[in-house]
Every structure is written in structure tokens, then in C-alpha cells.
């Protein structure tokens, strides 16, 4: 009888152990994806908490390579060729390692995107190494955090924050040549994107006369589109034609009022006031 009881106890224990208990991860995983340039940047990483501990110079020693987070290596995926810290990096997935010190960090972009932390790290897999300044924050960041900030059409900063420390990893994409090639190709077909082309030329300091030519054609194609008329007014103003810009902005403003779009009414008012 005792043998039966013992056997049942063992079976029950094994069954309970196999069933397991689900609890929150101490360093939960986060994935963030940001549209960037002509593609995107995606980052997957774990978020340990400080929990009253001293982080940099203690839990994370100065001068030693770090997985830049917890658990698996922090993974970044670039959807197109970029420059990271000024170093060319091909589109693809990489691990972000770092060597923190008190005043600066050495950032390492490594091919080992699927490494388990430092396990599997090889220096020969490094594709970029560069240093960035370490900044002191006026507040405490409890959980290790990565965000994408300072976004423009072709640049962004991967920002790493924990405890009272922050670093920024600059990322730049060369999109101008690609977009110019698209515009040149698009202008050879029947349905020509005059508005988009004029907008790109205006926003990026290209030939203002060509931008005005395309803005005029965009207005011809969409004569009641107040946003197209507003773009023409901006182009005229940049070209130095203040009288023309004012007249065009007035037309755009009246169209916007009829469409009940207060945002464009205000935009045109500001444009006229600035002439």
C-alpha cells in the first residue's frame, strides 16, 4: 500500500511540474517598429529593471562588452542600406553590443542577430564599431528602454536609456538618389505625380523653377484641391514671387473654407502673414 501511495505522489509531482506556472518575465521583451526613410527600423530587446541596484559601473561594469539589455542579444533590423554612427551597414538584422564607460560608449553592430546574449559573439562578425557620448539624465529611468527619436525623412537616433544614462546611435539613409530616380522615371509615363514631385523638390531645396512648373501642372490636374494650391503658394513664395504667392494662398484659403478645413485656412493665413 505504501508503494502505491509513493508512486501516486511521484506521478502527481511530475504532472504538476510538467504543467508549470506562468509568471511575468522579469525582463519582458519589447519589439518596436518605425517607418523610416523608404523602409523601416525594427528593434527587439529585453527590458530589465533597476530594482534599487546601481547599474552602470556596477551591475553593468565599465570597460566590458555588454549585450545591451538582458536575455538574448538586442536585435535591430534595417530595411535598407544605412550608415550607423557614420559606418555603412547593409540592410539586414544585427545584434547591438556595447562597451559602456563613464563618459562614452563603444557601440558594436554585429552579425550575430540570433546570439543568446554574449554567447556566440565573435569579433570577426562585427560590421561597425564607433563611439558615442554618454549623457546624464536629470531623472531616473527604472526599466532599460530603447526608443527611436529625432526622426527626419532620412535620419533617426536609436536612443538607449537606463538609470540616469542615455546614449544616441545616429542612423542615416541615403534616399535622395533613389527618390530622384523614381521621379525621373515617373515623369516619363502618362500619369505623372506632379504634386509629389513638386513637394519633394520644395522640401529638399531642389530646383525651385522646376518645382513651380510641376506645382502649376498639379493645380491644372486638381484645380479645386486646396492643398495643391497651398503648395503652389509656398513654391511661389520661395521663388520670390510674393504677389503671386499671396494671390494663390487666398484662393487656397477660400477653397479650404468651403471644404471646412480649418487647418489649411490657418496655414494660408500664416503664409500670407509671413510674406
TrEMBL record:
<dbReference type="InterPro" id="IPR011990">
    <property type="entry name" value="TPR-like_helical_dom_sf"/>
</dbReference>
<feature type="signal peptide">
    <location>
        <begin position="1"/>
        <end position="18"/>
    </location>
</feature>
<keyword id="KW-0732">Signal</keyword>
<dbReference type="Pfam" id="PF11138">
    <property type="entry name" value="DUF2911"/>
</dbReference>
<dbReference type="InterPro" id="IPR021314">
    <property type="entry name" value="DUF2911"/>
</dbReference>
<protein>
    <submittedName>
        <fullName>DUF2911 domain-containing protein</fullName>
    </submittedName>
</protein>
Amino acid at each position: 500500500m505504501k508503494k502505491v501511495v509513493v508512486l501516486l505522489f511521484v506521478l502527481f509531482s511530475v504532472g504538476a511540474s510538467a504543467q508549470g506556472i506562468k509568471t511575468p518575465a522579469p525582463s519582458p521583451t519589447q519589439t518596436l517598429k518605425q517607418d523610416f526613410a523608404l523602409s523601416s527600423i525594427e528593434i527587439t530587446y529585453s527590458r530589465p529593471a533597476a530594482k534599487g541596484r546601481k547599474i552602470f559601473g556596477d551591475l553593468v561594469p565599465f570597460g566590458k562588452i555588454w549585450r545591451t539589455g538582458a536575455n538574448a542579444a538586442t536585435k535591430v533590423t534595417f530595411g535598407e542600406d544605412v550608415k550607423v554612427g557614420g559606418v555603412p551597414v547593409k540592410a539586414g538584422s544585427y545584434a547591438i553590443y556595447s562597451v559602456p564607460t563613464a563618459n562614452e560608449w563603444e557601440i558594436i553592430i554585429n552579425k550575430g542577430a540570433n546570439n543568446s546574449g554574449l554567447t556566440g559573439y565573435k569579433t570577426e562578425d562585427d560590421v561597425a564599431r564607433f563611439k558615442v557620448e554618454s549623457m546624464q539624465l536629470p531623472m531616473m529611468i527604472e526599466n532599460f528602454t530603447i526608443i527611436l527619436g529625432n526622426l527626419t525623412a532620412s535620419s533617426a537616433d536609436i536612443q538607449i536609456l537606463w538609470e540616469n544614462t542615455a546614449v544616441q546611435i545616429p542612423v542615416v539613409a541615403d534616399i535622395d538618389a533613389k527618390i530622384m530616380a523614381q521621379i525621373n522615371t515617373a515623369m516619363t509615363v502618362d500619369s505623372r505625380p506632379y504634386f509629389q514631385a513638386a513637394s519633394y523638390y520644395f522640401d529638399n531645396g531642389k530646383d525651385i523653377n522646376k518645382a513651380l512648373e510641376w506645382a502649376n501642372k498639379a493645380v491644372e490636374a486638381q484645380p479645386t484641391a486646396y492643398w495643391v494650391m497651398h503648395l503652389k503658394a509656398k513654391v511661389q513664395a520661395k521663388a520670390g514671387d510674393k504677389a503671386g504667392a499671396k494671390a494663390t494662398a487666398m484662393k487656397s484659403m477660400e477653397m479650404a473654407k468651403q471644404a471646412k478645413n480649418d487647418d489649411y485656412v490657418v496655414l494660408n493665413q500664416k503664409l500670407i502673414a509671413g510674406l
